[in-house]
Design goal:
Chain B: Keywords: Pyrimidine biosynthesis, Transferase. The complex is a heterodimer of chains A (about 425) and B (about 325). Chain A is an alpha/beta fold and about 425 residues long. In chain A, about 30% of the residues lie in helices and about 25% in strands. Chain A contains 13 helices and 18 strands. In chain B, strand 5, helix 6 and strand 6 form a beta-alpha-beta unit. The longest helix of chain B is centred in the last third of the chain and has 21 residues. Chain B is globular and about 55 Å long. The chains are: A alpha/beta (about 425), B alpha/beta (about 325). At the A-B interface, helix 6 of A face helix 4 of B.
């Protein structure tokens, strides 16, 4: 099917494109032209994108798909065309058959593309290696422990050596087990005041320092997920400066919220890693501005019963797929980031981390496209979300920026 | 941010924490408590302020002293008191905290006295009551996790006012395990709100919360320095389980550095008073000679506690 998206502002950060009132042509599931129709092009479908931004589909580096159908529908409703799925499902994604099943289920549903992360160790226990090569063959894009640390440093070293043998990337959320196991909030003024057990910044920096040293020794490519502190970000910057193959991302909520948002024990402000201090938030924002860090939703659907509990008993995390775009736009506005740079952090930036030739609109690229109205406002209510996860610190707030249509491989998979 | 303890007229409807309460409310509670002291001295120790009302003591965590004094206080206000030991009932059957609250509301509860191991649990209950439109049901926090123990904080203030009259000239030292202490947090907020110019916290770094200075507290690691010329010493209980981890080497070493002995007490002002929220660990945080000495006001604290709890319950249920 031939599709033309007309009258929109086409933003393709990777190729330096930001053109108003341009037409994007799609044929055979691929980008076929920008501005000028390819020879002999006859549109089967015309999408009017007047007032809208037309950009590559969003690539979310972390989204949990507890109920896969609902969450993949939520993804495309949020303009997300590829989701990286951490392996901490039930059961953990530690066998090739499980990965295979997930990939096929994703294809069957036919909404966003599913990019699973295989478990680095069996059962995510941090002891025995999972069958990495088998998982890779089944479609895993990298290997991860989700937010479960590898406590045994020797096991981590061996896992990284083994991954480096095959040039597999390892994704790790840096959090020292011993310093974080009893904590529920950033060890700072708010936790002291509210009597919440603290997780010190050192829980993150110690883990990063260990991992970076092992990268130095093994050459393993590592992506550090959900960085929460200024000091952690400084260590990553130094590692990159030293030429080490280390990348990182931040959860979008950590760009906008701090420990102060816990207020009177709001369980929706409980995250893993915890929301930290204002200077930490600013350092994360600076890293996202410079491109050091990509932005992801860290989508974590949590049932109402698991949030209607005292702060320390509530499950951490927030719904993210449908707010990744509006919250990134909100961050861009407060941090004074150009729209095309903001779009880069959720499209070509993540694609680069994944080593994929996607997240852009060059000729011949798969037509994964997000069309959104940057001015449209909507209220975040449980009914407004397709995700089963209604858990959000933004419940009741107005969001600016709304997806109009989402295309995956040249098919319209969502429109409103 | 909306403070769930106050209604839109700024009146106290729940007592969840001392933090965020204006001085006038703290003074109102202390003054009301003073008027109740006389009731306890009568032959018929009752006033009819809560007649016909039901007070539910909801203790998700064990306590003897606090629960008993709340029970006595509620009975002196002529309320019906129902004690629920949740450990042994619904929680073990998987009922959630808010389900329990809904059930008790259906039994026409008027006031919940809540103790819970998780910081913030009474806030969850108060917010739930607001959500379901039950502004006729009140919550009094009887201790939540490490967060707050506001009636203990207020009875400590009552005790200090009783012996020292004026808050604005005092030096007060709080000694021991401040990190895990809800009493310490409530005391600190109450003391600073009531205008005490110098609040000191004394303890090893492992037992002090980070950024304590931001709460307006001067931190001392050396007890000999910290006790110098203070008017009031509040000793905190050191729980035995603190000795099993890496927080402290032994009870003996703790007592040598942070136990209150007659020698250390001599560093304070000659008329300094010694307080303790109980139960005491003699020989761990306090020497028996001090606990039983003339400067200790530990038993009067308990007596004042009843009047303070009567004051709190009558005020929140009356608003």
């Amino acid at each position: 099917m031939n599709i033309v998206i007309e009258n929109g502002r086409v933003i393709d950060p990777k190729n330096g494109v930001d053109r108003s009132n341009a037409s994007l042509y799609i044929a055979a599931g691929k980008i076929a032209g920008l501005g000028q129709a390819p020879a002999g092009f006859v549109a089967d479908k015309v999408i009017d994108a007047a007032g809208c931004v037309v950009c590559p589909g969003l690539i979310d580096l972390g989204a949990r798909l507890n109920s896969i159908e609902a969450e993949l529908a939520a993804a495309v409703a949020g303009g997300v065309t590829s989701v990286v799925v951490p392996p901490d499902a039930d059961p953990p994604l530690d066998e090739p058959e499980l990965a295979d099943r997930l990939v096929h289920r994703g294809e069957e549903i036919g909404k966003a593309r599913v990019l699973p992360l295989g478990a680095l160790t069996l059962g995510l226990k941090g002891e025995r290696l999972a069958e990495l090569a088998g998982l890779k063959k089944a479609g895993c894009v990298a290997f991860s422990q989700a937010n479960k640390p590898v406590i045994d440093t020797e096991a981590l070293l061996r896992a990284m050596e083994y991954a480096a043998t095959f040039d597999f990337a390892v994704w790790l959320q840096p959090q020292d087990y011993w310093l974080s196991r009893n904590g529920i909030a950033h060890e700072g003024e708010v936790a002291s005041r509210l009597g919440l057990a603290g997780i010190p910044v050192a829980a993150e920096t110690i883990a990063i320092a260990t991992i970076v040293q092992l990268v130095r020794d093994t050459g393993c490519r590592v992506h550090l997920t959900r960085i929460s502190s200024a000091a952690g970000m400084a260590l990553i910057q130094r590692a990159q400066h030293d030429g080490l193959p280390v990348t990182c991302d931040v959860g979008v909520h950590h760009l906008l919220l701090t420990e102060n948002d816990i207020g009177f024990f709001n369980p929706h402000a409980r995250f893993c890693p915890p929301l930290r201090a204002q200077n930490d938030r600013l350092a994360l924002s600076t890293a996202a501005v410079s491109g050091l860090a990509a932005i992801c939703s860290d989508h974590t659907p949590v049932g109402a019963d698991d949030k209607l509990l005292p702060f320390g008993e509530a499950k951490p995390g927030a719904t993210g797929l449908e707010v990744l775009l509006p919250l990134t736009l909100k961050w861009a506005e407060t941090a004074k980031v150009a729209l095309s740079d903001a779009v880069a952090r959720i499209t070509c930036g993540p694609a680069g981390i994944l080593g994929l030739d996607s997240g852009h609109l060059a000729l011949g690229a798969a037509a994964d496209v997000c069309i959104f109205d940057p001015q449209a406002t909507w209220q975040l209510t449980p009914e407004a979300l397709k995700s089963r996860g209604k858990n959000s610190p933004w419940q009741g707030y107005m969001m600016t920026g709304q997806v109009r249509s989402t295309l995956v491989g040249g098919r319209v998979v969502f429109s409103r | 941010m909306h403070n769930p303890q106050l209604n839109k007229d700024g009146e106290l409807i729940h007592l969840l924490s001392v933090e965020g309460l204006p001085q006038r409310i703290l003074t109102q509670i202390l003054d009301t408590a003073a008027s109740f002291m006389e009731v306890s001295a009568r032959e018929v120790k009752k006033v009819p302020l809560l007649r016909g009302k039901s007070v539910f003591n909801l203790f998700f965590e064990n306590s003897t002293r606090t629960r008993t004094t709340f029970e006595i206080a509620a009975k002196r206000l002529s309320a019906d008191v129902i004690n629920l030991d949740i450990n042994k009932s619904s929680a073990s059957k998987g009922e959630t905290l808010l389900d329990t609250i809904d059930n008790l509301c259906a039994m026409h509860a008027n006031l919940f006295v809540v103790r819970h191991a998780s910081s913030g649990a009474p806030y969850l209950i108060a917010e739930h009551l607001q959500r379901i439109g039950r502004d006729d049901v009140h919550v009094v926090n009887a201790g939540d996790g490490r967060h707050a123990h506001p009636t203990q904080g207020l009875l400590d203030m009552y005790t200090i006012r009783h012996y020292k009259k004026d808050f604005t000239q005092l030096r007060v030292a709080i000694v021991g395990d401040i990190l895990h202490s809800r009493v310490a947090r409530s005391d600190i907020h109450a003391l600073t709100t009531l205008g005490v110019p110098e609040v000191r916290a004394i303890g090893p770094e492992t037992l002090l919360p980070k950024h304590l200075d931001k709460l307006g507290v001067h931190v001392f690691h050396d007890m000999n320095e910290g006790l110098k010329d203070v008017d009031v010493i509040i000793m905190l209980r050191l729980q035995n389980e603190r000795m099993t981890g890496a927080l402290l080497p032994s009870a003996g070493e703790y007592f040598r550095h942070y136990g209150l002995t007659p020698q250390k007490l001599a560093l304070a002002k000659p008329d300094a008073i010694v307080m303790h929220p109980g139960p005491m660990n003699r020989g761990v945080e306090i020497h028996s000679a001090v606990a039983d000495g003339s400067q200790a006001v530990i038993l009067p604290q308990v007596t004042f506690g009843i009047a303070v709890r009567m004051a709190v319950m009558s005020i929140v249920a009356g608003n």
